[in-house]
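[job 0412] stage=fold_complex status=start
inputs:
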Amino acid sequence: MSETFTNKSIALVGPMGAGKSTIGRALAHALNRHLVDIDTEIESRAGAEISWIFDKEGEQGFRDRESKVLLEYCQRKDQIIATGGGAVLRENNRHTLSESTIVVFLRTSVETQWLRTKHDTKRPLLQTQDAKGKLQELYQVRAPLYESCAHITVDTDKSEADEICRLIITKLKQLR
Ligand code: S3P
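[job 0412] stage=fold_complex status=done
writing structure:
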């Protein structure tokens, strides 16, 4: 499989609840590549959960950590990189993602995002009275950013992770 497309790393971008970690695992397995989950890496380097980082350092402190880890992994080959939903906010991140990796946008409706995240207690941005409204607001701002750096877009609403993974692989082969 790997000889059919480049050894560039593949970065999954998209909103909270798009399935980046789950699809990342399936893709890493199918392509025999190493998976890095940027949120998990940030937590392990900080020795603290994301909610703690948001609390103590604010969102900008978290974004600084996120950029550092993301840009580091974008320089590596053969990775599957599961990003956080806000990784595309900074222009520099978007530039590096689209230059150094193959970016896959997991497009997901707000309804599906909501179904998958409504019981979540770990995502600081969703710990609000109107979490669905927040998802809507974030998507409006971020959808054009995901689109602007993506080489491949797949819809995740109606399919299982394995099926999406197969579709991504088909599209990766078509890139060449
Ligand atoms: C965030 C998404 C989260 C995590 C952090 C901020 C965002 O990652 O990075 O809570 O800004 O959308 P997931 O997209 O993996 O939930």
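[job 0412] summary: The helical segments are 20-31, 38-46, 50-74, 91-100, 110-117, 131-149, 161-174.
[job 0412] exit 0
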